[in-house]
Design brief:
heterodimer; A: 111 residues; seven-stranded mixed beta sheet; B: mainly beta; 12 strands
């Protein structure tokens, strides 16, 4: 089992650019989550998908953030336009049962 | 509302010492789950353990042990004979039964000094 796969692992971009983060959940997991981790706010849930359908996007900070899950094996988190305050580590997690398995994270730096 | 408190922000120990990481939680749910995750310097979040609210038995896994006490709403984590590889940030987390929400504590940074 390859675990949750995220790409890229690191992303450095300039303010105003579009950023797309990608996630491949563990096969068979029907729930997918995007989290953001910052020093100030810790781990925050951004959005939750169940069976590819967005269930709770109340954690998405602004309209600049959007997430999609076109199929059971792929999800994207897009920031357009990006701002320096979006700099953080973004984690994707999947779950089938009770324990969430997290991906390695994408460290985003917006200059 | 749920809350997880990890009062220890940072802990430093010398290799081979035992160390206990504290976790106190608040919830109104009668059924809930408690978790510990490890975040090593490489950044990934590694699942360590899940415990449900009906099971107060302590658990041991190698050098790791967990003490769940419902009476004090605590779920403490002890590392015996610590090693440098144990250096990481450790997060305690809480989820209500049937909930997708996972409430994390702020984490405790453990440094094991050789």
């Amino acid at each position: 089992d390859a675990g949750v796969i995220q790409s890229p692992r690191h992303e450095v971009t300039e303010m105003g650019q579009e950023v797309t983060l990608r996630c491949k959940p563990i096969s068979g997991h029907n729930s997918l989550f995007w989290y953001r981790q910052t020093m100030m706010r810790g781990l925050e849930l951004l959005i939750y998908f169940n069976n590819n359908v967005p269930i709770d996007d109340s954690g998405m900070p602004e309209d600049r953030f959007s997430a999609k899950m076109p199929n059971a094996s792929f999800s994207t988190l897009k920031i357009q336009p990006s701002e320096p305050r979006d700099s953080a580590v973004y984690f994707c997690a999947s779950r089938e049962g009770l324990a969430k398995a997290f991906g390695p994270g994408t460290r985003l730096t917006v200059l | 509302a749920q809350k997880v408190t990890q009062a220890q922000t940072e802990i430093s120990v010398v290799e081979k010492e035992d160390v206990t990481l504290d976790c106190v939680y608040e919830t109104r749910d009668t059924t809930y789950y408690l978790f510990w995750y490890k975040q090593p310097p490489s950044g990934e979040l590694v699942f360590l353990i899940r415990r449900n609210s009906f099971d107060e038995q302590n658990e041991i896994s190698g050098r790791y042990s967990w003490n769940f006490q419902k009476s004090t709403s605590s779920f403490n984590f002890t590392i015996t004979a610590s090693q440098v590889v144990d250096s990481a940030v450790y997060f305690c987390a809480l989820s209500g039964a049937g909930s997708y929400q996972l409430t994390f504590g702020k984490g405790t940074k453990l440094s094991v000094i050789p």
